[in-house]
Amino acid sequence: QVRLAESGGGLVQPGGSLRLSCVGSGRTFSNYAMGWFRQAPGKEREFVAAVAWYGFKRFNEDSVKGRFTISRSNGENTVDLQMNTLKPEDTAVYYCAASRSDGVPTDEEEYGYWGQGTQVTVSS
Questions:
Q1: How far apart are CA 22 and CA 48, in angstroms?
Q2: How many CB atoms lie within 10 A of CB 91?
Q3: Is the pLDDT of residue 3 over 80?
Q4: 80 has which bridge partners?
Q5: Cβ(95)–Cβ(123) under 8 Å?
């Protein structure tokens, strides 16, 4: 069992930045690929970014590449999502998730553990 808890969401103006953090507990955090997903009102949940246990990273290139970065600290059991140059369309609930995959899956079905989510609102 892996328990995940996100923090860092809030209200930010367009062009601003936020840093989301996810803390994991339970089984060995370093064995899991960690991902961030988001779900906007009325839309399906979508992949944002992920980092493999060995550090390889993948991003949703269409929507966040060049603006968001993902990092993890296996020693501290954390994975962060740095979001820069935020746009109103980035408004969503952001979820942290853990996967036993050795890669960086983009399909939410490959993630077995999820946090409760944190709201990010980008608005002036």
A1: 14
A2: 17
A3: yes
A4: 21, 71
A5: no
